[in-house]
Amino acid sequence: MWKGLPVALALLAGALSAPAQAAPKQETAVLAGGCFWGVEAVFESLKGVSNVVSGFSGGSKATAHYDIVSTGTTGHAESVEITYDPSQISYRQLLQVYFSVATDPTELNYQGPDHGTQYRGSIFYTTEAQKQVAEATIRELTTAHTYSAPIVTTVVPFVAFYPAEAYHQHYLVQHPDEPYIVYNDMPKLKALQSRFPALLKSHA
Asked: Is 35 designated active site?
């Protein structure tokens, strides 16, 4: 018999009886701030963010389809669902990026060239803690006169999120040369790299 077998079996037994290492904690943020293509790309670039899905919040499941939402009559807002590890990036930091880079919080029911209530800025909070952080962040930005116009982003309770059609997911990555992306969304990524370098994922 192999002399090392008893030792190997003992090590294996110890490994099996040892408590499993805790998985990274995951939390969810749902934010709306104009066309979800660029917003999705911004948050996908952040460390601690494991997944971002483009979709719709604020309306019913029956009408959560792009062609219907685009009429501006369904109550939805184009949104992103962000899954992140709060030990690596906080909800407050996500909102800092949201207000500074991903959206213009002074534009009511539109963002840039996109007009309609489906492009409104909304923070869909999933917990009371998220609500408090969102409201505090808006108060701080208002007190600091960060913008020349009032912040019109709404803070509303999360009800449901419906993923958009597959062709909308990771749209910027798949269509980096599309004129809309070049003129409206690439500047957001450049601003992100300039203002929040410490929050970017490492690609080393």
From this structure: yes
Residue 56: strand pairing partners: 78, 162
Q: Summarize pLDDT for 25-73 with one digit per residue, the tens.
A: 899 999 999 999 999 999 999 999 999 999 999 999 999 999 999 999 9
Would you state the structure tokens that stand for residue 102, as one six-digit string? 């991903």
- β-strands 161-163, 27-33 pairing: unpaired
Q: 29, 31, 32, 35: which one is catalytic? A: 35
Q: How far apart, in whole angstroms, are the C-alpha atoms of residue 142 and residue 40? A: 25
CA distances from 136 to 96, 105, 141, 152, 189 (A): 12, 15, 9, 14, 26
Q: What is the pTM of this model?
A: 0.88
* Fold of the CATH domain 23-198: Peptide Methionine Sulfoxide Reductase; Chain A (3.30.1060)
Residue bearing tokens 């660029």? 38
Rounded to 5 degrees, what angle do the CA atoms 113, 76, 36 make?
Answer: 45
- The two three-digit tokens of residue 50, written as one number: 């494991």
Where does residue 120 fall: left (phi above 0), alpha (psi -120 to 50 degrees), or beta otherwise? beta
**Residue 35 — φ and ψ, nearest 5°?**
-55, 130
- Domain spans in the chain, listed from the N-terminal domain onward: 23-198
β-strands 77-84, 161-163: how paired? Answer: unpaired
